[in-house]
Structure formats: C-alpha cells, structure tokens
Please model this.
Amino acid sequence: MGFSTDSIHAGYTPDPATNAVIPPIHLTTTYYQDDIGKHKGYVYSRSGNPTRDILQKNIAVLEKGKYALAFSSGLAAIHALTSVLKAGDHAIVSNDVYGGTFRLFEKFLVDYGIKTTFVDTTRIENIEKAIQPNSKLIHIESPTNPLLAISDIQEIANLAKSKNLLLSVDNTFMTPYFQNPLLLGADIVVHSTTKYLGGHSDLLGGVLIFNSDELYERFKFVQNSIGAVLSPFDCWLLLRSIKTLAVRMERHNKNAMEIAKYLVNHQKIKKVFYPGLESHPQHSIARKQMRGFGGMISFEVENFEFAKTVLKKFKLFTLAESLGGVESLVCHPASMTHASIPKEIREKNGLTDGLIRLSIGIEDIEDLINDLEQALK
Model:
C-alpha cells in the first residue's frame, strides 16, 4: 500500500464490540480474567493496551519495520534504546544532537559505567577512529538538531555490521514519510512522536522501531519493567494525527524550501542550514537517502544580541521549544533546547549564540516570509 493509505489503515480493524471505524480509547488499567492466568492477552495496561497496540502496529508499517514500541516521551524511548548497553560498554553518538540526548549519554549514563564518544558522523572516518573494543552502539541523528547535518546512513550501517555494532537513527526530523533508516541498514529507528508524528503540539511520546526478535524481547521487557509507556489517550491522539502526516509533511517541506531560498539571500544572515539547498555540504547524500528535506531550518546571525532582538520581534512565529507542529515556532538553541550542552562544546560543534532555529509550519507562505522580513529589520 502507499504511505497515505497505510497511515490511515495500517493496524486498524473495526472495533469487535461495536464495529466502530475509529478505535476506542481503552482507559482501563486492568482487565477481567476468566480464571487464574486465563485472559484475552491483556492483564494490566502498563504491560499491554489495545489502543497502544494499534498505534505500534501502524508506526511499524510506516517505518518498514516488524515491531514498534511506544513510550511516554522521545527521551524515554532513547533511554529504553540504551538498555542494549551495560556497565563497561561504549557508545558513539553524533556530536550535534538534541540537548536532552547529550544530557542522557554524557551526564546520566556515565554514572552507570557507560562511556560515550561524540563525533561528527557526517565523516565515516571519524566513526571508525572512535570505535573501541567495548563499543556496542552507534547512535546518530540525520538530519542533526539543530545544524541539520546529514550522515550517510547506509555507509554507517555497513560499518556497524562489519564491527558487530548496533546502529540506531533518530528519524524525528524526517519522519517515515521522507526517510526509512531500516531500509538503509539501520537496526533501530527512534522518534520523538511529540514532534511531526503528533504534529499539533498537544502530546508527548516516543517510539522505537526495529526488525529483530531479540531486540523486541529486550525493549518489551524494558517498556514493561520501567513503565514509561504512552498513555491510551495520547496513543489515540497520535493515531488521529498520523492520518494526516503525508499532507502535513508535504506542506512543511514546501514552505521550508521557499523560506530557505529567501533566507539564503538575506544580507543580515551569515549562514543558512537546510539540506534542501544545493549549497548544503551533504545535499547529495540527502537527495540519495531522503524523499524530501523536511520543515526544519536553522540560520546564523552576527551575534547573540542581534539574535535576541530578532526573536523578540516575531509576530507569527512563536518563541517556544519543540518543533513539528502545524504552527511555526522559533527558538534559540544555545539558551533553550541545547542549554544542557556546555558552551565550549556547543561552539566547537558550530552551534553559536547567533544561531536561530525555525520549525516551519503549514501557514500561508506569504505570511511566514512577511514575519521573517519584519523581524530581521
């Protein structure tokens, strides 16, 4: 089936009790058992819930995977992902990642004896040099947050397999509509469903997608044991949102391309980061592994003072963290989403105090460009 068809139908069957087309929200925490150990597959909603099961089947199909497991947030999903590591293990992670991901690996997992090396994963030789005898996992964002760097997923997957390492890819920015890392050789795909999959800035969630039976047993055990599961209501909201993912992503992509072309010619902007521009250093890789370039743009202005002035002047773009909603958002990564990363590391990675990140919504393009124009004045 095509993507839009799958997004609307995959995982769905009419409700057996009523034949309702839209599945009910199963808010129950516990389930009646006919006898001790005799039940219909559900005993307690942390362990399994019918609404969550439909969602997980739907997302697995969209990401071309066998299994999907939903968690209470994107970071909860990444935390579950790191359960493949144990004390003494080593991970390699993209140096330009979401601040929460950096914090989890660098400031939390270290207390459990897990070490991480952050490298520029756009260059395969950097990953090769970082591999140690105790390395177990390569985790990348592609595109990265917030500098939108592109790594060659297939090339990294081949390296990971040759070294017996797992490769996980955070696909939040692209969504399964524009990119399918499992088809490129990745072992695990991560999403913060709070972002584009949810698409309306009204739910928190995360998901892992994969093909391995062994990983399913591991992550299902973690999901049940730690209990950071997505609530039935948020599962239902997410199912509703995914139905329109294709049409939303087309509009995000179209608007972002127009805005990137506008920004790249603006005299007050030093640099624009958007993989859809031919000037982007990994544009050719983006064209090879992606079917679109997404709705995220970052750009750099002269300094923090000018960035602060611009941020205060927006009227339509909302100054806020997060991304991927139908409404356009703007943020200052250095002091907001990536504030947990030390300044010297941010600047070493190219994340300056003059960087502004845009999440391009689906409003009328003329209104968005007019708002940028007046703010940049």
